[in-house]
């Protein structure tokens, strides 16, 4: 049975009304969701919450959630910046959401000119400003050329300061991972690893994933400014930088163009006092999720427009 013109118009009007309702309530709902997420102080629990909730959210709601976190990070909200690090450390976030959903989000972000969100879906080592050759990676440690990988791993757990200094130049990410856990390492050592150039990008990933060292401001600065940093890592570190560092990064022609553009955008936002309310994102699409307040509490209400459309078609067919 085909729809008559009046029934078809009524169905479209009803769906448009539902979408308008989500447009009006989406931003405030997402802000409450982000507040709930940021209220979780423990990083493992917060990461678990992200992993549990993000795959359940509608594509447009997920985009709005990610954009809100990025915007709050841009305005130097320390909790939002921590969540941004959590998201990026999923390496990549596409693994968390699945290929189909990630592709939809990536395309939707590009359609809405939200490049910062799109960058969250880059794979682990696919893009950086500078690349390294296989010959470079094959020479794993020119400071200890005669030591085997197994012996260098052992040295990385040791207390010989001279050996540790030479291991800072190692190009094997497993050695670097062990070295970062050595209690004899100090911040200056880790900054040296993060700022090393040329270097193996996988080693920079180990620094980024270190629970202890990624909290240090100078480490994040080194990763953001290193042209060998994978792009998503650099992009996750940029919102943490103070204004003088952002200004330096915006002029730095060795880093990826997207990193420079992000630094310029953050400088502009901080000068203008950017807020989410000035740049709202509307939820428009096939489905969405809103949050309503009921009797002083919050309740998540999921609206699936595809399901509603099917039910309307079935209703009109009777």
Supply the key terms.
single chain; 318 residues; mainly alpha; 2 domains; two-stranded antiparallel sheet; 18 helices; 2 strands; 61% helix; 5% strand; elongated
Overview of this protein structure:
The protein is mainly alpha-helical and 318 residues long. The protein folds into two domains: 5-124 and 277-317, no CATH class; 128-229, no CATH class. It is built from 18 helices and two strands. The chain has helices at residues 5-38, 43-53, 59-74, 78-88, 93-97, 99-111, 115-118, 134-138, 149-156, 161-167, 173-180, 187-195, 201-208, 217-225, 231-237, 243-251, 257-272, 305-317, and strands spanning 287-294, 297-304. It has a two-stranded antiparallel ribbon with strand order 1-2. The longest helix has 34 residues, at 5-38. The chain is elongated. The chain starts with a helix and ends with a helix.
Total count of domains? 2
Lateral strand order in the biggest sheet = 1-2
- Helicity, as a percent range: 55-70%
Number of helices: 18
| Main beta-sheet annotation | 2 strands, antiparallel
Number of E-state strands: 2
Low-confidence stretches: 274-306
Tell me the structural class. Answer: mainly alpha
Average pLDDT rating: 77
Order of helices and strands: HHHHHHHHHHHHHHHHHEEH
- How far the N terminus sits from the C terminus, by CA atoms, comes to 10 Å
- Give me the Rg, rounded: 23 Å
Shape: elongated
The percent range for strand residues is 5-15%
